[in-house]
Amino acid sequence: MTLSINTNIAATRASKYLAANHQNLQKSLDRLSSGKRITSASDDAGGLAVSMKLEHSINGLEGASKNISNAISLLQVQDGILDSAGQIVSRMGELKSMYSDVTKSPTDKNTYNEEYRDLIGQLNSMTSAKFNEVGLFAAAADTTLTVDVNGTNIGITQQGFAQEINAGAAGDPIVAAAAAQTLDGNTSTEISDALEAIASMRAANGGQVKRLEYALADVNTQITNLTAANGRIMDVDIAEESAALAKHQILVQASASMVAQANSANNVALQLLQ
Questions:
Q1: How far apart are CA 10 and CA 262, in angstroms?
Q2: Tell me: the pLDDT tens digits for 148-183?
């Protein structure tokens, strides 16, 4: 093998290995510091593309989860008002029974009528209840609100509160302005029908809440599974990468030392020139 000064093949090769080892060391440092196996598209182009689509699906499902949770909250507030309405109508039925007592004086009956009108006024005020500026009850017949569950719509009902309760009342409306209503205006049967209407609305509300709870559980399960799948693509194996880091550190040190040795090998040529 010839001895050359201008061209140092050994140093060139050692420099090439040093650059490659340094690049691998930098990649291990990037992975361990970021916690990701793929830190640039060149690491795994196909894996990165799949991960981006999975992240998009996860973000959509997380938005759907929030939508469902908000809809459940709306229905729970609605049910709370219907529960109170049921107690009010039940009290109205009790007042009707006491009002019909033959031993009650006109003054007693007037007292019962005052409370009855107060209860009607409270029922009437409930019709305008809102959740975040969204009406809980429809002005007339039931209307449907839609919940977007990642592209699929689930309907929830704005109950026709006044219409449903008043449907069985042939006398004075049970939900109305409480101007002149008296216990003479409604029979016990009509009040019972009003209570049954409230029970039906609560049953419908409960069914919708249950459906949304199942939908929420399904969405959260999908989020968990997709997140796990994305993690298998993107997350770095700390144990494996730590071993690789140690190897690359040693190789960088060794190749740097060999570059220095190769650069000093041509000093032999100087001895021949002396």
A1: 6
A2: 887 888 888 898 888 888 876 656 677 776 666 778
